[in-house]
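Something for you to look into today, if you have time. I want to see for myself how the chain folds. Leave the record below and I will have a look.
***
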Amino acid sequence: MLDRLKDIVRKTSINVCIVNCGGCNGCDIELVACLSPRYDLEQYGIYLQNNPRDADVLLLTGAVTEQWEDKLHRIYTKVPEPKVVLAVGNCPQSGDVFAQEGGRVSAPASNFIPVDAEVCGCPPRPDEIISAVLAVVPKAMVAKGHENKKIKDNDS
């Protein structure tokens, strides 16, 4: 019964899992702001998940350190299909201030897992993050076979 209920909820909403691979946590603070009443990410049917096995979208923050290279790939494999990855901030894209010659930061994250979309900034603003998530959500919904009915009606 519980599994059936989980399936119904997963088909009608998008579940996001935040993965911080090492960094200053600036992007994480902005992600928490997305959940605040001011930005209210949940009004779009997008919910935070702590378990990657229940997630539709991985929000990747922080520079990928040596310790996270294998862990990031393992987490990615646990996410059910369709997998959508959003790199938030400059760190997962370039390593930003943590990328030094001979350092222990491996950038970009797309060397380890496929990244579908990126949000630039150090840190990006919450409204930019929400806009990027909303741009990725339709791709995930179409891949699941559950397009928004309003989108279908407008296309006709």
Summary: The first strand starts at residue 14 and ends at 20. Residues 148-156 have pLDDT under 50 and may be disordered.
